[in-house]
Amino acid sequence: MTGWVLMAEAARGPFVESQHFGAAAIAGPEGIREAWGDAGRVILPRSAIKMIQALPLVTSGAADAARLGPEHLALACASHQGAEMHTRRVADWLDALGLSEADLRCGPQMPSDRAAREALIRAKETPTQLHNNCSGKHAGMLTLARHLGAGPEYHLPGHPVQIACREVFEALTGAPSPGYGIDGCALPNFAGRLDGIARAMAWFATAHEREDARSRAAVRLTEAMMAHPELVAGEGRTCTELMRAAPGAIAVKTGAEGVFTAILPEQGLGVALKIADGAARAADCAIAALLVRLGALDAKDPAVRRRMEAAVLNRRGDEVGAIRPATALG
Amino acid sequence: MTGWVLMAEAARGPFVESQHFGAAAIAGPEGIREAWGDAGRVILPRSAIKMIQALPLVTSGAADAARLGPEHLALACASHQGAEMHTRRVADWLDALGLSEADLRCGPQMPSDRAAREALIRAKETPTQLHNNCSGKHAGMLTLARHLGAGPEYHLPGHPVQIACREVFEALTGAPSPGYGIDGCALPNFAGRLDGIARAMAWFATAHEREDARSRAAVRLTEAMMAHPELVAGEGRTCTELMRAAPGAIAVKTGAEGVFTAILPEQGLGVALKIADGAARAADCAIAALLVRLGALDAKDPAVRRRMEAAVLNRRGDEVGAIRPATALG
After folding, report:
1. Please, what are the averages of pLDDT over each run of 10 residues along chain B (330 residues)?
2. In terms of CA atoms, which chain A residue is nearest residue B180?
3. Closest chain A residue to B319 measured between Cα atoms?
4. What is the distance between the alpha carbons of residues B300 and B285, in angstroms, rounded to a whole number?
5. How far apart are the first and last CA of chain A?
6. pTM strictly above 0.90
7. A185/B314 touch (CB, cutoff 8 Å), yes or no
8. CATH 1.10.4030 for the A5-329 domain, yes or no
9. Is the pLDDT of residue A230 over 70?
10. Domain coordinates of chain A in residue numbers?
């Protein structure tokens, strides 16, 4: 249990039924401002650092050479749910590159978007790589690989695209990565300290104060995420709803296995958290609580309340419990 | 974190990505034999004690009056996945009582059985209460309510059926229940100490040594579960596959929010565990490890290996990690 603290609880009737532990860090320009649990813990950030993985796409000039707009950049940072608005845009993007779904290396995934999923089932079709929640990130990496004149196996750890991703991840987290795990979409996911990831998010949050190319790229990516929250995740999703609840003020990103990051440009702050057990319900609850604590979200906003007082229903639709953040986050 | 210990870990590449904490107890006729974490913790056992909730159905004479067989009793103890083999049997059971799906109070649930789920989606139909994983338990309670001449709202805490369930739960766990939460199927789920629930499972495991009516009912329920593992859960499910891996030797039952129980008649032992965060992947892993520790399952059995070394795949189908039990359970 060393290094984890209570982050969220699931109550049922008068009982706390389940508990989620984790760690979190809030960073400012000066460094770590506040932490819960062991913020020095090394984690796999998964999709919560897609905005870092997208930086080389912009700094290399590949994004401009391919005439990518804010919608493309939002999709490059997205874990979308495979709705038609996502898959169509990624398909058009690949088409404009003279590439196709077959050039992706992310693998197929049944969309979490209900309409898209049920349409596939009714048509007795299987999902494609376009439906993979990471297909926008992969389209961005194909764009970069093409621009670099590198080979088609952009997902391999030794490919120039992944070497560039590792280099920028280590630069922004301030330490060499101790290694990687293979992500659900087949890319190397570089490990880093939780507090280092929070500092990287603070670097994004203060990028508008700097003029270097990487900082200007960070501003473009952050603004693209905030301008198109529906492309970063999808209808009903936490990233989309929390960004809509504070338009232009925060960029937030979920990652598998209970990771969440947030960029607060107005305050120059970055947030990173990891739920020990990997539960999304707890990560969603904790990030909402931390953003309310920082004054970036209003606890009375319905989208925020749905995360900080998430109703547990029985199958008759009665409210029989709730998932709430730990008081230490309040 | 007080009272929880490491129960399972999810590894990705060289890193432990996520950790699941929990508590467990193994009881024999003499009492608690072994425990991990705080076994005195009060938990909501959810569906892991359905065999206790089914005892009044048998001891009252209602099961015999309604000519219920082992398949009915297995379904009364089941969290089935709404496959045709489950819903058809529950529908026939209600029909024989002169009742129908409308008399159930469990609420509708989309079946976890893929064929049944996709058939509903293709037919553009919504699930019924027969698909609810608890519909067999509810058919049993309707059978008991009818036998007792009690009213139709059998799901309410003050109904004779629920009073009988509370009485037997308190008798077998050895303490008054501090209260209840409303379960996903709308029934009161009485809280109890984890070690008390393990003792109740040991009481089931030794029931064949006793001649009282409640013990004879326990033998019938345990044998029904072991005779029809496919009705207790369904194809591919942990309860079904682990009972098939040790035919006639163990009865195991999962519960929502990371609960698992096991009855070992040959050894006279009972097991109960709770994963703090409620993760089924960890509860499945931990119960398999404890049953291997007790010699009731063979670690080399494929169904056991799938739980004690559960492969984590990426969306290209490559094995990129594994979920494993904590060494303390070995």
Report:
1. 91 98 97 97 98 98 98 98 98 98 98 98 98 98 98 98 98 98 98 98 98 98 98 98 98 98 98 98 98 98 97 97 96
2. A13
3. A182
4. 14
5. 22
6. yes
7. yes
8. no
9. yes
10. 5-329
Q: How close B11 comes to chain A (CA, Å)? A: 9
CA distance B2 to chain A (A): 9
What is the model's pLDDT at position A27? Answer: 98
Q: Return the pLDDT at B2.
A: 76
Look up residue A204 and give its two tokens: 């994004």
Q: Residue A310: which H helix or E strand, with range?
A: strand A310-313
Given a contact cutoff of 8 angstroms between Cβ atoms, the answer to whether A143 and A97 are in contact is yes
Q: What is the DSSP letter of B304?
A: H
Q: Facing residues of B34 across strands?
A: B26
Distance to chain B for A207, nearest Cα, Å: 30
Spatial CB neighbours of A269, under 8 Å, sequence gap ≥ 6: A26, A27, A28, A33, A201, A202, A205, A294
The answer to whether residue A1 scores a pLDDT higher than 90 is: no
**Residue carrying structure tokens 């015999």:** B64
Phi, psi of A53 (to 5 degrees): -65, -20
DSSP states of A65-130: HTT--HHHHHHHT------HHHHHHHHHHHHHTT--GGG--S-----SSHHHHHHHHHTT----GG
Find out whether A62 and A146 touch, Cβ atoms under 8 Å. Answer: yes
Size of the A and B interface in Cβ pairs below 8 Å: 150
The complex's ipTM? 0.97
